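User: Reviewer 2 asked us to show a designed sequence for the structure in our supplementary figure. I'm pasting the structure tokens here. Could you produce the per-position amino acids so we can include them in the response letter?
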């Protein structure tokens, strides 16, 4: 990545997340990054391209967080890894300047399913659901996809509430919910005693 492109993405990412995708114009990004209009258009033919690149950077950061949670403690149990992923989400909600989920925010501003921004949101969310499904399957959960959808729903709620009120009880509730998913998961009889089903 060239220095100019990196500066553009850094400026765009900060401004888009803090102020919204529609409200921040190209001229604002150019001024903040300290580049020329020609430089911006050399790297991003239009604003939509810049928006998609911004979301790609957020996606990359979240993937790195999940991977770090998976590998931080060698020998960690699958349950510990699920809780570690949840802890990284809670840490983000408690961080200064938190304004909710970048992808949910983007979907609210670009509701057309055919728009490239909306498509980037859907791709990220499918990856996240697939990843959580895989992690929960590793715990012995017999129905990992419904459990993963439950996890994602809890995460979405925590992300929405965490920027509206005190994030401490929001994060505590989210983590308690994830613990409940793990505690009451469906385990095949062959793998051990069947725990109480969510359904």
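Assistant: Here is a per-position design you can include in the supplement:
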């Amino acid at each position: 990545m060239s220095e100019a492109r990196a500066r553009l993405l850094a400026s765009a990412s900060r401004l888009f997340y803090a102020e919204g995708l529609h409200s921040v114009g190209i001229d604002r990004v150019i001024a903040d990054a300290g580049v020329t209009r020609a430089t911006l258009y050399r790297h991003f033919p239009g604003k939509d391209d810049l928006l998609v690149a911004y979301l790609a950077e957020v996606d990359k950061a979240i993937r790195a967080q999940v991977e770090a949670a998976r590998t931080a403690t060698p020998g960690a149990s699958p349950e510990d890894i699920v809780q570690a992923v949840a802890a990284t989400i809670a840490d983000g909600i408690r961080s200064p300047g938190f304004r909710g989920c970048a992808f949910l925010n983007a979907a609210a501003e670009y509701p057309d399913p055919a728009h490239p921004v909306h498509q980037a949101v859907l791709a990220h969310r499918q990856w996240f659901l697939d990843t959580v499904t895989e992690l929960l399957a590793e715990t012995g959960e017999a129905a990992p996809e419904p459990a993963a959808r439950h996890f994602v729903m809890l995460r979405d709620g925590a992300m929405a509430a965490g920027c509206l009120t005190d994030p401490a009880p929001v994060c505590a509730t989210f983590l308690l919910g994830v613990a409940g998913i793990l505690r009451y998961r469906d385990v095949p009889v062959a793998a051990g005693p069947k725990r109480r089903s969510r359904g």
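For the response letter, you might also mention the following. The first helix runs from residue 3 to 19. The mean pLDDT is 93.
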